[in-house]
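Fold this sequence, please.
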Amino acid sequence: MNPQVLKVEKRISADVTRLFRAWLNAEDFSRWFLSGEMIGIDSVTMDPRPGGKFLINMTLDGKILPHEGEYITIDEPHKLVFTWRSHATENRDTLVTVTFTDLTNVDRSKGLKEKPQTLVTLIHEELLNDIQIKMHNQGWTSILESLNQWIGV
């Protein structure tokens, strides 16, 4: 078995701190964390601290699909690292790192700042095969697009 790595990126027109905090507030998170058209969120519980756990109960065709993990690193507003376990990882722990890079330009000569721009980079490690890579690529891509749409509201 050669564990594989998936990388998904999305440039979002929003402040880096606001985007970071959207990942750690259960109420906000449940509004945007959607991995596909047919997927819903039943419930979200979070204990956002290193060693704290989270549980995301997604729904599909009337079934609840638990996704759970543990926060390893919370470095506001730059980096989140957590384990990720679900049916799509064969109930094995995998590792997700989300980084938030502020791309906002500041024109120091004029003291002007552009509208906020953040690059969200998600790296998912320890996936076992091409099927897991494909499933998670679709899921994480949809999730980052949902975050972009939610944050723009």
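The longest strand covers residues 63-75. The helical segments are 16-22, 26-32, 130-151.
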